[in-house]
Design a protein that fits this description.
The complex is a heteropentamer of chains A (315), B (96), C (97), D (113) and E (602). Chain B has 96 residues and is mainly alpha-helical. Chain B is built from three helices and no strands. Chain B has one domain. The radius of gyration of chain B is 17 Å and the shape is flat. Chain C is elongated. Chain C has one domain. Chain C is an all-alpha fold. Chain C is built from three helices and no strands. Chain D has 113 residues and is mainly α. Chain D has one domain: Helix Hairpins. Chain D is elongated. The termini of chain D are far apart. Chains in contact: A-B, A-C, A-D, A-E, B-C, D-E. Chains A and D meet through helix 1, helix 2, helix 3, helix 4 and helix 5 of A and helix 1, helix 2 and helix 3 of D.
Chain lengths: 315, 96, 97, 113, 602
């Protein structure tokens, strides 16, 4: 149908407008709102590209959590905007950077368009080997079986990033709690939201994980929704972030990668390869890893948003 | 039917672009929050229709997640805006 | 039968889009924050509600239909709370500036 | 087949914007924002490549789509680390400037005989 | 060395060693994260010997397989799955990394110990986990056979390295860490863009499969230039070096040693993997000459600015800049115009040997500088006199490490220089021979400058203004274990030349210091003399007020002034290049020029 490309053109057009706005905007908090809108629109683009799993991820992490992080940072940095506005690059520098960036972008575009037409793809191979894990969703197959190493290393990246964020705490506050969220006004709308939304969010998060075996979804997307819900509760002041030094919290933070390592080494000891699953046990084992993963990733993402500990660990 | 829906999506996206103008001109944080909320809703509506056009049933799940997280982002925005205005004083306890 | 369903879809979705249009124009034209808020919430619940209603017959299974209604309810909840927060922010801005 | 061309070009323009924003804007927060834009542009390249490789009944090649999911999580942790670093730097010095002399002059003063 | 034959089948139990060398640091980091408190250090120190043993076992097994040790993760063969591969290059880098990390662990035991009272402290907890994170990331970089796994490994490396820079929380280290993270992220996104295009063109990201499929198409050339420039940004090759000096100088001593010796080698190794394994046939004369020209500029700029430095740690950081340039000289020498391809020969062996000896020597020098800082309370070069008495081991380590870097026999750098000179002679590129010799002379220059100050008379004027120095801390005691670790590494770098590397590196068997005695002595004396001349001309020193030296200094008046002016010019150029917009512009310009240079051949 001729109309469909018009739709894509329009979606792409709006995405570009928002992207230009995010870069050009005068002050940063309106640029951040533009970025949140950009994240929502990107979810549309990913659905048009036939990748609902990635649309979920982009919507959840791209615009949800990253948006919340940037909004918090923009609010706190509003005072510092004057100090750096003086260093704006001169007109000549800007045009030079713009020209070079255009050339690089054009080179990538030309390269993209010159890719071979019967595009080489691993889809047939992924479909042929889907039987090994008994999972219907090809992307979960790739993440948890074919390229399980990338997924395991990625959870290690999350732990290292969290240690990096925690290392920015002042020495006195080590082992304490991240920034104190305000005791919101009890009858206010935020507390109402914090009481109604999280149950819905938890149900949706578990649903997204459970459905990921055969339909678009996944542990990361589910974890992001749980993390967002926990942050809403924290924001409303109904709960408080646990101390950084608490043992149970740390166990929860490494549960995902540790379970992954144990299953991987188990596969090695049972004669198969590292990170291989026993033949008819693949599906339950993968779901077990995913449940350990969803708790770990949700806690890690929420603590990454909460930031380094700033209050000493008073009871 | 798909042609009609495509036109509708085109219209919704146009309204979304218009909503952005308010973000551009919005003086206060309140305007920006409202614009973000409208953009969220337009995005969800467009997504639902696109899901039907390309008959991707998962688009509804994406819309669900988007609805949840647009609320979360708006709540984060409101909280930070409120705290930025009076960082340490406890919130006034006036009724809703 | 499907012609009637299609007709329902066309009518409902176009009504929904109309409310979106009204909401957006209201957001742009109205003088102060609170009136714009009024326009915005209309676009939210009515616009999306009608679009969801219009898509119900097109949705494949009952489960998808239920999810559509769920989306609408979630946006209603979001709309309600955000408008409260915006109202507080607007009053604070009004009182402090 | 046309959406891959449309979204491919859109991704290239977004990547170019990201590069431009990351280099030109002096404020680190805007650089992090531009980095996120650039990252989402590159992930869109993966999406277009995946869509071109659609075969065997899948709407897109699952391998690049899985790489994008891993990449988005890595990009998020990068943004979280960068923002935490920026906020701590801002709390420590009151300015968010990346200029060499902003914190304290790390460069050598050539006051040589 | 024949192409890797058994490339796609798993090599049985010995393959499991590859998995172990990644799992040991990762598992140790996770256990240490949960254990916390004092146990973090013990777990990390326990993991060091285990990892070293695994690395040595891998290095022993690789020559037996003839090509490379391969392990298919999850039992899935590429292109669907991910394979781990250890060829000669990765085996030697694994062993060197394990040794340097072990030495840094021993050295850091004193600095990062939990105080008596506290249950757990921020700095020790963070350091030990990030040390294991860097080690895990590096092992994955050396072993991964898939370009996207290499990307995730690079991110582990960067996220583990950045917090090390600002571990003590001072404002300028926070800024240095932020600049490092932002520029490294730009580099990794460019690398990812290149990976996308390669997958789009060939449907696989496996290194060996790609090497069989790659032809000269626009997509591949753009991918090659983007990935290379992205990796150069993470390796801080001039002009993309804006983040390195403040980051490496600001980090605590153990952190600086880790950053300078190892973290920078991770992205360098992937550039070598890209151009020698993935697309050897796509390089062009223009591109390789340009890459090595950047290396030569880095040697010149890094060394001259190092001579101008007032602080010891900044001097060593700029020396790292110069040595990174040294590593890239091998690209022009390894490119065979006739076969129009990169050859794995003397040049590659020389480059890798230089990388290994720099890793050991630079780690020793930063550890020694750390000990000198603890002993004297400051690291101002002008007032280093007396360090010899207080921390003799550290000064000896610094001197030995410096000599190893200069490339005096029997050091690894000397063998590397010999191999590079031989390949320069074979390919008739005499100008690179001149650059190699100049590199040795410059390295000797700033070494002599520091040693002259350390061993020279106590200079009254310099120590007088020590009290006004705000960063001077109280003078601490330096344990013998710290100095022993630095000395061991320096000695190890000096002895690298004695090993016969033919089993791992692409050199004919029996390549050792075979040249005659006269050549060896000449090769040893010449850089020292040239270094002395350069130090006198360009170095930052004030002639003593009276005595014979004063008349000699007066005679050199005009030359000295020219030298100082040249040095100041280089410092200004360095300060200009290290501004963020200029560095960003050079990043983009380099990507475009490199892409043009690559496609100039077609």
């Amino acid at each position: 149908m001729t109309i469909v490309p018009a739709l894509d053109l329009f979606v792409a057009g709006v995405v570009l407008i928002v992207a230009v706005w995010t870069v050009v905007a005068r002050d940063s908090s309106s640029a951040v709102v533009g970025f949140v809108a950009y994240g929502l629109l990107l979810a549309l683009v990913w659905v048009r590209l036939g990748a609902p799993d990635v649309a979920l991820t982009e919507a959840a992490i791209g615009s949800g959590l990253t948006g919340a992080l940037l909004i918090g940072a923009a609010a706190r940095l509003r005072a510092g905007e004057s100090s750096t506005s003086a260093e704006h690059l001169g007109g000549v520098g800007r045009t030079l950077v713009a020209a070079l960036a255009t050339i690089v972008a054009a080179a990538i575009a030309v390269a993209l368009l010159s890719l071979p037409d019967p595009a080489p793809s691993l889809a047939p191979e992924a479909a042929a080997n889907a039987g090994a894990t008994g999972l219907g969703n090809p992307i979960t197959n790739v993440l948890m079986a074919f390229r399980a190493m990338d997924t395991m290393l990625e959870k290690f990246v999350l732990v290292i990033a969290l240690v990096g964020v925690w290392s920015l705490a002042p020495d006195g506050a080590w082992g304490g709690r991240p920034r104190s969220y305000h005791r919101a006004d009890p009858e206010g709308a935020l507390v109402f939201l914090a009481r109604v939304l999280p149950p819905l969010g938890v149900v949706l998060g578990i649903y997204v994980l459970w459905v990921s075996a055969d339909h678009p979804g996944g542990a990361f997307q589910g974890a992001t929704i749980l993390a967002a819900m926990w942050l809403v509760v924290l924001m409303a002041g109904l709960g408080d972030v646990p101390e950084v030094g608490r043992q149970q919290l740390r166990l929860m933070l490494v549960a995902g990668p540790v379970v992954f390592l144990i299953v991987g080494l188990g596969g090695l000891l049972l004669g198969g390869a590292f990170l291989s699953y026993p033949q008819d046990w693949a599906k339950p084992v993968i779901l077990a890893i995913e449940f350990a993963m969803i708790l770990t990733v949700a806690a890690t993402l929420a603590l990454l948003v909460a930031g380094p500990p700033e209050r000493s660990a008073e009871p | 039917m798909n042609e009609f829906l495509t036109v509708m999506v085109g219209l919704i996206l146009a309204l979304l672009a218009l909503g952005l103008v308010r973000v551009l001109r919005g003086p206060g944080d309140a305007d920006r929050m409202m614009a973000a909320q409208l953009i969220g809703t337009c995005g969800i509506a467009a997504l639902l229709i696109i899901g039907v056009i390309g008959d991707i049933s998962a688009a509804i799940d994406v819309a669900l997640v988007l609805a949840l997280l647009a609320t979360f982002a708006a709540a984060a925005f409101a909280e930070c805006a409120r705290r930025a205005q009076q960082p340490d004083t406890p919130p006034e306890t006036e009724g809703p | 039968m499907s012609a009637v369903l299609d007709l329902v879809t066309i009518v409902a979705v176009s009504a929904g889009v109309f409310f979106f249009l009204a909401g957006t124009v209201g957001l742009l034209r109205f003088p102060d924050t609170l009136t714009r808020l009024h326009a915005l919430t209309k676009a939210d619940n009515l616009g999306l509600g009608l679009v969801a209603l219009g898509l119900l017959p097109q949705a494949g299974s009952l489960q998808n239909g239920l999810k559509l209604v769920c989306v609408w309810l979630l946006v209603l909840l979001a709309g309600a709370t955000v408008s409260q927060l915006v109202a507080q922010a607007a009053r604070r801005e009004g009182s402090s500036s | 087949m046309s959406e891959t061309i449309v979204f491919g070009l859109c991704a290239a323009v977004v990547a170019g914007l990201g590069l431009y924003g990351a280099i030109v804007n002096p404020q680190p927060l805007r650089k992090i924002l531009a980095f996120n834009l650039l990252g989402s542009g590159v992930f869109l390249f993966f999406g277009v490549v995946a869509r071109r490789g659609a075969a065997a009944g899948f709407p897109g090649d699952p391998i690049p789509q899985a790489l994008v999911i891993t990449g988005v999580v890595v990009a998020f942790s990068a943004t979280a680390l960068a923002l935490a670093l920026l906020l701590r730097y801002f709390d420590a010095t009151g300015s968010a400037s990346l200029r060499d002399g902003a914190a304290s002059n790390a460069g050598p003063e050539s006051t040589d005989a | 060395m024949s192409g890797p034959v058994a490339v796609l089948e798993s090599a049985g139990s010995s393959g499991a060693l590859l998995v172990l060398s990644i799992v040991v640091p990762v598992a140790a980091a996770l256990v240490a994260f949960v254990a916390g408190g004092r146990r973090t250090a013990w777990i990390a120190l326990a993991a060091l010997p285990v990892g070293l043993a695994v690395a040595v076992a891998i290095a022993a097994k690789v020559p037996q397989t003839g090509g490379a040790l391969v392990y298919l993760l999850g039992g899935w063969a590429p292109p669907l799955g991910v394979a781990l591969r250890a060829d000669g290059l990765s085996a030697v880098m694994l062993v060197v990394t394990a040794c340097v990390v072990a030495a840094i662990g021993v050295y850091a035991r004193a600095d990062f110990r939990v105080a008596a009272g506290a249950a757990e402290e921020r700095a020790p907890f963070t350091f030990w986990i990030l040390l294991l994170g860097v080690w895990g990331g590096l092992n994955t970089v050396f072993l991964a056979g898939d370009l996207f796994t290499l990307y995730v490994a690079l991110e582990i490396l960067t996220f583990a390295a950045v917090p090390l820079v600002c571990l003590d929380g001072r404002a300028e280290t926070l800024q240095a860490a932020l600049r490092y993270l932002l520029f490294a992220l730009l580099g990794s996104v460019l690398y990812l863009a290149g990976t996308t295009l390669l997958y789009g063109a060939y449907g696989t990201l496996d290194v060996v499969l790609l090497s069989r499929l790659v032809t000269a198409e626009p997509a591949v050339l753009v991918a090659g230039s983007l990935m290379t420039v992205g990796l150069l940004a993470k390796t801080a090759l001039v002009p993309l070096h804006l983040w390195l000096p403040p980051a490496h100088a600001g980090a605590p001593p153990a952190g600086s040693a880790l950053l300078s010796a190892l973290v920078v080698k991770g992205s360098f190794f992937i550039v070598v993997r890209l151009w020698f394994d993935v697309m050897p046939g796509l390089q062009s004369v223009a591109a390789t000459q340009m890459l090595s020209a950047l290396g030569a500029t880095a040697i010149l700029l890094g060394s001259v600015v190092a001579l101008r430095q007032e602080r010891l740690k900044l001097l060593i950081a700029y020396s790292t800049l110069a040595q990174i340039g040294y590593l890239f000289l091998m690209f022009a020498l390894a490119y065979d115009a006739g076969a129009a391809s990169m050859l794995k020969g003397d040049a590659l062996a020389g480059g890798m040997l230089q990388a290994m000896s720099h890793a050991a020597a630079k780690a020793a020098m930063f550890m020694a500088a750390g000990s000198i800082y603890t002993a004297l309370g400051h690291d101002r070069i002008a007032a280093l006199a007396g360090a010899g008495r207080r921390v003799p081991g550290a000064v000896a380590a610094f001197a030995l490490g410096g000599l190893a870097l200069v490339g005096l026999p029997p050091s690894g750098a000397y063998l590397a220089k010999e191999l590079l000179l031989r390949s320069a002679a074979d390919t008739g590129q005499w100008w690179w021979a001149v650059v190699i010799q100049a590199g040795g002379a410059f390295t000797c220059a700033y070494l002599l400058l520091v040693l002259a100050r350390v061993l020279g008379p106590v200079n009254r004027t310099a120590t007088a203004d020590e009290t006004t120095d705000e960063t001077a801390t109280k003078r601490g005691r330096v344990g013998w274990s710290q100095q022993a670790a630095a000395l061991a590494l320096a000695a190890c770098s000096l002895a690298l030349g004695l090993v016969d590397w033919s089993a791992w590196l692409p050199v004919p068997p029996g390549t050792r210091l075979s040249s005659s005695l006269v050549d060896t002595i000449a090769a040893a004396v010449w850089p020292v003399l040239a270094g002395g001349v350069l130090a006198v001309l360009l170095g930052r020193w004030t002639p003593p007020p009276r005595g014979r030296l004063q008349q000699a200094a007066a005679a050199l008046g005009p030359l000295r002034r020219a030298g100082v002016a040249l040095g100041a010019g280089f410092c200004r150029a360095d300060a200009f290049l290290r501004q963020w917009p200029v560095a960003g512009l050079s990043l983009l310009a380099l990507a475009i020029v490199f892409g043009a240079a690559l496609s100039a051949r077609y």
